[in-house]
Every structure is written in C-alpha cells, then in structure tokens.
Model the fold of this input.
Amino acid sequence: MNECTLGEIESKFADLIWENEPLPSGELVKLAQDAIGWKKSTTYTVLRRLCEKGLFRNEGGEVRALVTRDEFRAMRSEQFVNETFGGSLPRFLTAFSRGKKLNDEEVDALLKFIEENRQRG
Done:
C-alpha cells in the first residue's frame, strides 16, 4: 500500500466500499450519490485515487477491497507511531495515557497484550 492517509471525504467513501463490497461500480455510483451527493465523475475520480493507493481494485466493473478496514487502520496506526514517536510503542502509550487514567479493563488488556508478545518473542 502506497499511503496510509485519507481525507475525511475519502474515508467516508472508503467506508461505503468496505460496508458493501464486493459491488458493481454502477451500484457504488448510486451509493455515493445517495450518501455523499457525488456525481458519477467524482465517484470514479476518488475511486481511482483509492485504487492507486492500493486500497481497492476496480476490475471488470466490480469494486473489491485489497485491504480490509481493520488492516488499513492497523497500517495507519503503525505509520502514526513511527512518524510521531519514532516507532516506540511505549512512548506512544505514555503520551496517550498521560492525561487519562486507565481503567482496570484497559490495564488488563495491555497486560494481556504484553504477555502474548513476550511469549512470541
């Protein structure tokens, strides 16, 4: 995947695809018109951009995801941690939780994550 960032409107459009794929491109045009108010040309322009980013494929008139929404979010999160915190998950967690008290459920989830990764390592 080329780029892990999407603007607000691109995100809304990508969500339309993820929620309905695989789907005929003509149906996507109708969905985008109803949900976002786009014309056919706008839909195809933005779809082409998202295909160039490696998120989707429009082949034979069918639009499919190449990356799931969860995979995209994971890549975007990793990119953010790398760019903002030099790839350090502990630095990110420290900054994230600085002004926020973690509840017991969150602490348990983090401890479970640490244990699972310790066993894999």
Q: What stands out?
A: DSSP finds six helices and three strands in the chain.
